[in-house]
Amino acid sequence: MLTMNNIEELLNQITVVDDFFTTDEMNNIKTKLQEPKWSFVGGGVDDIDQSIKSNFWHMEDLDDYFSNYLFNKILEKYKFSGKLLNVYANGQTASQSGVPHWDEGDLTFLLFTENWKHHWGGNLNFCDNEEVTKVVTYKQNRGVLFPARFLHYAGAPDKIYDGLRISVAWKIKVESEI
Q1: How do residues 33-62 score in pLDDT, each as one tens digit?
Q2: CB count, 10 Å around CB of 7?
Q3: Phi and psi at residue 54, in whole multiples of 5°?
Q4: Across 93-164, where does the E strand assignment appear?
Q5: Domains in the chain: how many in total?
Q6: Alpha carbons within 13 A on the beta-carbon side of 95
Q7: How much of the chain, in percent, has pLDDT values that exceed 90?
Q8: Distance CA 127, CA 134 (A)
Q9: What's the CATH number where 41 sits?
């Protein structure tokens, strides 16, 4: 069982889990992300340098499968209860890099959905004001749980990749252990 010490650990570290969801769950996720809900409103302003902005693809209003079923699987895996603040998908094509930012809530869980080759880039970067401090390589069905207060951004896919680099983000407010 998760204890308050474990919750404190989750609130202070980056946790990476490969093969997070089952094959059937990943197939459902990928099918749902093919729906025509994408718009070019993703991205935002750099939380360190407000003059820098990014734009990329975004899918809001993900259905109950994401906000209930998958969210509860995430909570079960990490053994805490929490409130879902938001869930959405981001999509990036070549040269569409994110900018350093903090997230809402206590924790963010990111899922990488696409079959990927490491030389395509698109990695998740954690940083401070000066440099990248940790890199999590993009890999299909890799889950990354990290404190929302950690400054981070998604790097752009390389120009040789002609698809959409997709990640699903769950923003979580921690409530207690279960």
Answers
A1: 998 889 887 777 766 777 777 778 899 989
A2: 20
A3: -125, 155
A4: 107-112, 124-127, 132-136, 142-147, 152-154
A5: 1
A6: 1
A7: 76
A8: 7
A9: 2.60.120.620
Confidence (pTM): 0.90
Q: Which of 101, 90, 97 is nearest to 151 (CA)?
A: 101
Identify the three-state secondary structure at position 139: coil
| pLDDT for position 177 | 60
CA-based torsion, 86, 6, 135, 142: positive or negative: negative
- Radius of gyration of the chain from its Cα atoms, rounded to whole angstroms: 16
Residue 107, domain extent? 4-177
AA identity, residue 97:
S
For 1, other C-beta atoms within 10 Å of its C-beta total: 6
- Residue 36 is predicted with a pLDDT of 81
| Alpha carbon distances (Å) from 17 to 78, 142, 144 | 11, 6, 6
Give dist(CA 125, CA 154) in Å, integer.
6
